[in-house]
Structure formats: structure tokens, C-alpha cells
Design a protein that fits this description.
Elements (H helix, E strand, L loop, with lengths): L1 H29 L6 H18 L2 H27 L4 H23 L15 E4 L2 E4 H23 L1 H11 L1 H6 L4 H23 L9 H16 L4 H21 L7 H12 L10
Antiparallel strand pairs: 1-2
Helix pairs in contact: 1-5, 1-8, 1-9, 1-10, 2-3, 2-4, 2-8, 2-9, 3-8, 5-6, 6-8, 9-10, 9-11
Amino acid sequence: MLTINLFNGLVYGALLIVMCSGLALIYGLRRVVNFAHGSLYMLGAYLGYSISLHSNFWVALIAAPAIMALFGVLLDRYGFRLLQDRDPLTVVLVTFGLLLVIEDLVQTTWGKSNLSVPVPEALAFSVDLFGTPVPAYRLSVIVIGLLVALGLSLWLRFSKVGLFVRAASTDPVTTSMQGVNTDFLSAGVVGLGTALAGLAGVVAAPFLSLSPAMSSDVIIDSFVVVVIGGLGSLAGAFIAALVLGMVQAIGAVYLPDAAVLLPFVFMIGILIWKPSGFAGSRT
């Protein structure tokens, strides 16, 4: 029982890695706390559902994030760019309004009933893990989460664009004076962050029920991860996502009645110990 719960905790942690990477990237450059990020995850899941109906899951895995990336670029151009450096209340109201618009769009297009996406046939089998059979698809979710973490880390550390992203997140004015088009760069990063939210939705669809309320199920945990990881820190988000997944898994076994509260208790404990989060820097 504990083994399967720990495994499911890793699966959820890996899903949060994909989800929170986008949230951290967007905040890192635009300094916008995107309360609509959960609805982008939901929209990606529904797009993946529709695409898989007309083709297959593997096409949806590529096409849905690509569509979400384009949506993210437009969202940055006509939304986040205007919200940058605005007062926090304005940001909250606008992004929360966007969340409501997307939720209403999803309900109008796909309805309010729960939908499901079948597990792709290539992964519809079980793997023996320490004597416990676990679904191969869920194991693939862990692999996807780790690949996203590794890919983003290498991209930010060793690529020229990654260098610009790190520089712009630290000092956008100086970076712009060096000839870097920070608005173009930010649009690309927001597009990438939105694509990652869409990817998380597509990946989650085969083992989580699709519903217009699914955004609220994950966005709270996502913000907990970003806060305790350190605002804007990808490395901190990676660590926090896995730790939170394991905390929830253990809590489901030993403290089932308090499992919903554990993320908040965990966040409070971390912030008391280190107010800047796992990888955040003190100001």
C-alpha cells in the first residue's frame, strides 16, 4: 500500500514539475503571478482530448502544446506585457478574470460532464516495481517530468537563449541595453510556459478525469510548489514538486483526514524555516 502511494506521489510530483515549470518561467520574466495557469492546463487537456478523438494520443501530445504555445504568445502580447509592473491587485483581478473566461469557454465547447482519455495502447500494461505492479503509463509520466526538468535546466544553463532568459529575469533593463529584445524573449518564454501547462494537461488526461473544475484541483498545489521552491526558481520548483508529491502520498496513508491541509502546513513550515523558499535568494 505504501509503495503504490509513494509511486503515485512521484507521478503527481512529476506532473507538478511540468505544470510549475511554466508558472515559474512566466513569473521569472514577466513578474506576473498567473492565477489563470490552472485553466491553461485544463484547456490543454481538453484540446488533447479533441485531437486524440480525431487522430491519436501521440499526435495530441505534440499538437495541443503547440496550440497552447501560440495562445501563450498572444496572451503575452495582449495581456502579460501590459500587466508587468502593475500593482498586484490588478494582476490578480485580470488573471482571475481570464481563468473564468477560459472555464466558461471550456464548458460551452465541451460541456460540464466528466470526460476521459484512454491510455495509449503502447503503454497499456503494468511494470513490476519492487514486487508491486504499477501502470506503465504512470511510470512514463515520471519520465516526462524528469525529461522536462533536465531539458529546461540544460537549455537555461548552456544555450545562448537560456543565457538571455537568465539575464533578463535578473536585470531586464541592462539586458535590453545589450541589444536583446526582451519583449520578444518574454513572449517566447510565456509561449513555452503555456505550452508546458498544456503538456501537463495532455499527460494528465489518461489518468485524471477531465472536468471544468480540474484547474482548481492543481493550481493551488502549483502555487504552493512555486512559493516554497522560491519565486521564479526552476530548480526550487523541481525539488518542491517532488517533495510535495511525496508529502501528499504519505499523508494519504497516515493522515487521510488532513491530507488536504498538508500542502499548506508544509508551505508554512518551509517559509518559517526559509522565507525565500528552497532556492530563492533573500532580498
